[in-house]
Input
Amino acid sequence: MAKVPNWQLGREMSYPYEKPAAAGKQFSAVFNINRCIACQTCTMACKSTWTFSQGQEFMWWNNVESKPYGGYPQHWDMKTLALLEEADPGGQKWDAGKKDPANAPYGVYNGLTVFEAAEQLKTGQAAIGYIPTDQEWSVPNIHEDTSTVFSAQGGQIPEHQTWFFYLQRICNHCSYPACLASCPRKAIYKREEDGIVLVDQSRCRGYRKCVEACPYKKVMYRGNTRIAEKCIACYPRVEGTDPLTEGEPMVTRCISVCVGKIRLQGWVNDEKSPINFLVHKEKVALPLYPQFGTQPNVYYIPPRWVPRQYLRQMFGPGVDEALAKYANPSHELLGVLQLFGATQKLLASYEITEDEAIGFNTSGREVVRVPIVEPVIVRPPERLNIT
Ligand code: SF4
Ligand code: SF4
Ligand code: SF4
Ligand code: F3S
Output
């Protein structure tokens, strides 16, 4: 395997290919878990656009699951964590002392990634993994709104004793995709222009190594065509070639419809992007299970009320800093948070003034302007509903 840099791990790691040609831009999104209401509008927007046909009945490219018990497919994360634990018992540890703002913002991960575990175990595979059963794919919303067991001791604010939260999931369009690495047919590719990861359906022969290797279980097998399918990041909208977009890059279906305005899309590797600010500068948005090693490009603002230990396992050791920033936001962060869900246009850059957040499209034209603090209007006495 080649050695490639993984900034989320703070070190180099093994990967079957040399670093994929540096994507000019990298498709990316930030999801603010604190704001999600689990309405599943995102889920249905994706389904009614891309997976409404025969053979796709159990395919949910976007899903929202209730943690800690829910999962689609069921137990996907616990199973992958268990495989890593089996490969390297007790090894999934971070060295926070080696934190370095430029190269190792979360410290250094000393455990094995899914690629390194496969290498160490001499599996002959690109990554460790497993193929979920049909049963595990069949119940996407199992354990919705199910909390942890109530404790008589009561909660300790800000963490709650009894808790659950919603985890919104699409393909992460990883910088080091395990799906791509595992396919013997080289049927999966990552586009240089925007980093979107796609299955070439004319090359795919249904080997399902991709389904096995993706630690997030975001490649799905379609029985009636015998090929793999996955989230395509709504690429016609991102390209601006969808008739609706009138030539201008737009955000994806699941992002544009979000009722809770929890989602923001942009280019994580562009200094001017609000996503770059949230991930690299403010460090308030974190990767999902960075220890898997694929360098995922969907980031999360973690939920404030959940025990830190659980969150650190899920989002790495950057959780405490992220939550401290989110609980006491800077003026710039407050402004950028207002841009979530404010427009369907893809925001390439932004400006925060004293009282407004302004978003610009890729050609630098202003496309949205929102107040940072909503004006409070007090109803005058003569207009009161009750006297
Ligand atoms: Fe959550 Fe938005 Fe999806 Fe509703 S549409 S479930 S608020 S991510
Ligand atoms: Fe591939 Fe899975 Fe990463 Fe998506 S999340 S790019 S399917 S490894
Ligand atoms: Fe579906 Fe598009 Fe969202 Fe991917 S980006 S989950 S294809 S709506
Ligand atoms: Fe390759 Fe997956 Fe198809 S491994 S052949 S893309 S099912």
About this structure: The pocket of iron/sulfur cluster (ligand 1) is lined by residues 36-42, 64, 168, 258-260, 262 (CB under 6 Å).
